[in-house]
Amino acid sequence: MTHTPGLVVTGASGRMGQMLIRMIGENDKMRLVGAVERKGHPWVGQDIGTAMGGPALGVTVTDEAVDAFAKAQGIVDFTTPEATLEFAALAAQARAVHVIGTTGMTEEQIAALEPAARHAVIIRSGNMSLGVNLLAQLTRKIAEALDEDFDVEIVESHHHHKVDAPSGTALMFGEAAAAGRGVQLRDVADRGRDGITGARQKGHIGFSAIRGGDIVGEHDVMFLAPGERVILRHIATDRSVFARGALKAAIWGQGRAPGIYSMADVLGL
Ligand SMILES: NC(=O)C1=CN([C@@H]2O[C@H](COP(=O)(O)OP(=O)(O)OC[C@H]3O[C@@H](n4cnc5c(N)ncnc54)[C@H](O)[C@@H]3O)[C@@H](O)[C@H]2O)C=CC1
Ligand SMILES: O=C(O)C1=N[C@H](C(=O)O)C[C@H](O)C1
């Protein structure tokens, strides 16, 4: 009998789903026990390995998450907000660790994860990479140190398929800057300026989004004052940095008390 945690990947055919499946296959500390896709997806019923164009992996893509989750100790989920909410309830029933990478969730959708977190471990982050999580800590410290003469602007760039803006990472940086200043992001966020917007308000945190080509994910956190600028930059060139963090989280969560955790918890930051 094997004691390595069995993982289910949801959104298995997606950009992150396929990266996760490849990386689980290369890791002897975990096993792939399920691959879930949305109803009607052409991969449902096929072996996930062959659907991805490689050798068979012995795991058939299913649209029945409840059956797949019953065999799993961890669910790694990069899908959509609606699917993620559904999976949170099912993962809690199965007492499986639910790693959530999905972005674009509203405040209400995030709050709706709480009942599931009473029964199981949820680890959620808008960005699973070590570099971004380190930079979020730095953002908070810099925001604590600099006063409101420094305007905070966050600029993010992503591939042309991305459907949500600002990115989950940009919002993480915004939350970190707001926490450093002792304010709530929702009270100071400037999202989507257009037209005669009026002059910039002191203390606000601005967001801008670029979409194009195959950009994996790039973020600048800018502190802009008369006479000087401090700019923090993170550039992801490969999705493996997100997948590595998500898989680390799935292992870290095993045996933890139920609750909602972040990547800062996983990484001990
Ligand atoms: N937190 C992080 O570090 C990262 C988060 N993301 C986020 O992850 C999400 C997915 O990103 P990508 O893989 O680029 O998108 P994608 O569009 O390539 O993949 C999403 C997959 O989810 C599937 N899906 C949708 N509804 C489903 C359902 N009800 N059941 C099962 N599968 C379902 C889709 O068919 C698709 O294959 C996005 O929200 C993105 O912003 C992406 C990269 C890193
Ligand atoms: O959709 C993506 O691709 C990414 N999404 C995450 C986000 O919204 O910040 C993380 C990463 O930037 C890639």
UniProtKB/TrEMBL annotation:
Residues 131-267 form the Dihydrodipicolinate reductase C-terminal domain. CDD domains: DHDPR_N. GO terms for biological process: diaminopimelate biosynthetic process; lysine biosynthetic process via diaminopimelate. It is found in: Cytoplasm. GO terms for molecular function: 4-hydroxy-tetrahydrodipicolinate reductase; NAD binding; NADP binding; oxidoreductase activity, acting on CH or CH2 groups, NAD or NADP as acceptor. Keywords: Amino-acid biosynthesis, Cytoplasm, Diaminopimelate biosynthesis, Lysine biosynthesis, NAD, NADP, Oxidoreductase. (S)-2,3,4,5-tetrahydrodipicolinate binds at H159, G168, T169. InterPro entries: DapB_C, DapB_N, DapB_N_CS, DHDPR_bac, NAD(P)-bd_dom_sf. NAD(+) binds at G11, A12, S13, G14, R15, M16, E37, G101, T102, T103, S125, G126, N127, M128. Its EC number is 1.17.1.8. One of its GO terms (cellular component) is cytosol. Residues 7-128 form the Dihydrodipicolinate reductase N-terminal domain. Signal peptide: none annotated. It holds the Pfam family DapB_C. Belongs to the DapB family. Homotetramer. PANTHER family: 4-HYDROXY-TETRAHYDRODIPICOLINATE REDUCTASE 1, CHLOROPLASTIC-RELATED (PTHR20836:SF0), DIHYDRODIPICOLINATE REDUCTASE (PTHR20836). Catalyzes the conversion of 4-hydroxy-tetrahydrodipicolinate (HTPA) to tetrahydrodipicolinate. This is 4-hydroxy-tetrahydrodipicolinate reductase. It comes from Seohaeicola zhoushanensis. The gene is dapB.
